[in-house]
Amino acid sequence: MEVGDICRSAVICSLSFGLHLIFLILSIKMSSSEYKGFGVCPATVPCHCEGSTHIKCNSKRLKQLPFFLDFLYIWKELDLSDNLLNHLELGGFNGVQTLSINLGKNTLTVVNIGTFQGTQGVELLDLSYNYLSFLPAQVFQELTDLLKLLLSNNR
User: Fold this and answer.
1) What is the band of 40 on the pLDDT scale with cuts at 50, 70, 90?
2) 46-53: long-range contacts (C-beta < 8 A, 24 or more apart)?
3) In angstroms, what CA-CA distances link 134 with 59, 80, 117, 140?
4) pLDDT higher than 70, residue 27
5) DSSP-derived pairing of the beta strands 100-102 and 87-88
6) Angular region, 74: left φ>0, alpha ψ -120 to 50, beta rest
7) What is the pLDDT confidence band of residue 6, given thresholds at 50, 70 and 90?
8) Which of 33, 48, 77, 101 is deepest in the core (most CB within 10 A)?
9) In the CATH hierarchy, which fold is given to the domain comprising 31-150?
């Protein structure tokens, strides 16, 4: 197969080659922190992103975890506080990359082992102001970066 067989029109081939080259250059030059400038927000409605650091899902009357798109870099905070979450699905945070998850002021009664499976970078987890009375230690097994756990005002 010759180039002429693939590119019947020089204009289309030039345009296609140019777009691929631009994409390749951008892919090579961008570090993960530079993706922020492109406004890639992993939140879906009803959540939203504030700048390129905070994902806001607070005070939305959520009864289940929202769906998130791919996280291209680590965010500073995922705020799920002040909702109606009473349980967290197994693997519900899979793929989430954030330094902080705020689940305070919900109606959580249980957090299952495996809930945080596939979560990356979490240093702070806020579970305060819920209805938790028991948490197995294995719940936090996947949170290898966890430095601070807030559990005040639970049962």
Assistant:
1) confident
2) 53/77
3) 25, 21, 19, 13
4) no
5) unpaired
6) beta
7) very low
8) 101
9) 3.80.10
